[in-house]
Amino acid sequence: MTIKLNDPTLLKTQAFIDGKWVDADSGETFAVTNPATGEHLADVASVGAGETRRAIEAGEQAMADWKALPPKTRCDLLEKWYQLMLDNTEDLATIMTAEQGKTLAESRGEVGYGASFIKWFAEEGKRVYGDIIPSTPDRRGVVIKQPVGVVAAITPWNFPNAMITRKAGPALAVGCAIVLKPAAETPLSALALVELADRAGLPAGLFSVLPSANAAEVGGEMTSNTTVKKVTFTGSTPVGKLLMKQCADTVKRTSMELGGNAPVIVFDDADLDQAVAGALVAKYRNSGQTCICANRLLVQEGIYDAFVEKFAAAVAEFRIGNGFEAATTHGPVITEKAAAEIHAKVQNAVEEGATVIIGGQPGEQGGSFYQPTVLTDVNDQMRVFREEIFGPVAPVFKFSTEQEAVRMANDTEFGLAAYLYTENLGRIWRVSEAIDYGMVGVNETAISSEIIPFGGVKESGQGREGSKYGLDDYLETKYICMGGLNR
Ligand code: SIN
C-alpha cells in the first residue's frame, strides 16, 4: 500500500456491512489505481447481490430505533461525524488525490465541502415540520413528514466525498438508513468516510458501504429489493434512465443528479475580467470533470476576440501533473479511456473546422492526462456542442443577439447549470427566466454549497440536494384526518 497517512487505519479495503468490515462472499477484489501515475493503490472487496441484500436488511432493522430517536440525538451524532471529517482532512484529502487525481488543494476543499453537508443536515433534521389544515368544525387535517425508508445510493468518482455526504446527510438526519455503492474508481474515500461515521458512534446497519466492480449486480439488487424505498444516484444520464426504469417495477422514489451541458453566456456588456475568471473556474474545476462544468462558452460577437485572448492566456499558465506536486494546478482525468473519449470529441470538432487555440492533444505525460484546450470556429453541429465533454476542453461559440444566446443555451436535452455575465439588470432577469436550467449563476460560477438546492431539469435529473429542499427527497408526506372534535 503506497498511500501514506497520519492515521493508516483510515485506509480500508473491505466492505462495511451492518457495522462490520467484511470480505466479499466470493472473495473477489478489484484494483484501485492512481490516475496520475498508474500506480496500484489497493485491492478492494468486490461485493455482489447477496451482500447488498444483507446490508439492506440490516438497514431496515437499524432504522426502527434510529427514526424513533429525538432529532437532536441524531443531530449530535452527525455533528461528531462532521468534526471527525474535519479533524482528518489531511488524510481524507490524501486518499482522494491518490485515487481520483485532483490536486491536494482541491481535495482539501472537497473534504470541507463534503463535511458541510453533514453539519447542515444535522441541523436541518431538527426542522422537519408538518402542517395543520383547517377543515370542518369537527375535524382538522394534520400533515406529518416521515423518513422514506431504506435508501440506496450510487455515487460517482468525480467527487468521491461530497456526493456521498449530500445523500447520507439528509437520509440519516431524518431517520433513514442508507446503503451506498461508491464508484469503483474511488472506493477508498467512501470507506474512510464510513470508518469515521462508525467512530462517531453511528449505530450498526445504518450506513453500509458496498464497493463493487459489478455495478449491474449491486444496482440490480438495490432497484429490485422491496425494502429499498428510494434510490438516489449521481452520474450519467443513460445510467440514470436505466435505474429509473428498474425502479419502476417497485415504484420507488428516485433522485437523479445526471449529466449537464452548461453554457456560460458572456454578453458584450459583461465585465471582461470577471467573465474570464468565472469561466475558467466553471470550465477547469476538477479538470473539467463536474456535472456543472462549463461545457459551452457562448460569447457575444463584440467581446468575443478579447475574451478568447484573455481566456487562452490564462489557460496557458496552467500546469497539469500529479495532484500531490505543489506546482500542479490541474490533475489528470480519471482514466486513459476518459482521455481518449475527450480527444475523440476534440478531433471531431477539428475535422469539422474548429481551430485549436491552445492544447488539443493528450498530455505529454501520457496515461490519463489531457491538455487544457481552447477551441474556436466551433458550431452547434459538433459533438462539443451536443455532448457533455467532461474534460478540460473549452469550445468558445459566437452569438449576436440575446435571443440567439437563449436559443443556443436551450438547444440541448440537458438542464443542470447555466451561467451568464452581463451588467444589464433587465437582461439578467429575462435570460435567467428564459433558460431551462435548475441552477443559474449570474456574474458568478462558484455556485455550489450545502445551503443551495442543487439539481437539474430536463434530462439532467430530478430532486434537489442541499438546502432545506434537500430534506424533502428523504421524506414522505402523511395526512392524518383528525375527526370527531365536537365529541
Ligand atoms: C457534480 O459534478 O455533480 C457536483 C458538482 C458540485 O457539487 O459542485
Secondary structure elements and pairings:
Elements (H helix, E strand, L loop, with lengths): L14 E3 L2 E3 L6 E5 L6 E6 L3 H18 L4 H17 L1 H12 L3 H21 L6 E4 L5 E8 L2 E5 L7 H13 L3 E4 L5 H14 L6 E3 L5 H10 L3 E7 L2 H12 L4 E5 L4 E5 L5 H13 L9 E7 H15 L20 H16 L3 E4 L14 E4 L6 H4 L6 E7 L2 H9 L6 E5 L3 H10 L4 E4 L18 E2 L12 E8 L5
Parallel strand pairs: 7-8, 7-10, 8-9, 10-11, 12-13, 12-17, 13-16, 15-16, 17-18
Antiparallel strand pairs: 1-2, 3-4, 5-6, 6-20, 11-19, 14-15
The structure holds succinic acid.
The site of succinic acid has 10 residues, from loops.
Would you kindly provide a written description of the structure presented here, covering whatever features stand out?
This protein is α/β, with parallel strands linked by helices. It has 14 helices and 20 strands. It has helices spanning 49-66, 71-87, 89-100, 104-124, 162-174, 187-200, 215-224, 237-248, 272-284, 301-315, 336-351, 383-386, 402-410, 425-434; strands at residues 15-17, 20-22, 29-33, 40-45, 131-134, 140-147, 150-154, 178-181, 207-209, 228-234, 253-257, 262-266, 294-300, 355-358, 373-376, 393-399, 417-421, 439-442, 461-462, 475-482. The longest helix has 21 residues, at 104-124. The protein is globular, with a radius of gyration of 23 Å. The termini are far apart. Bound molecules: succinic acid. Residues 158-159, 162, 234, 257, 290-292, 448, 454 line the site of succinic acid. Succinic acid is lined by residues 158-159, 162, 234, 257, 290-292, 448, 454.
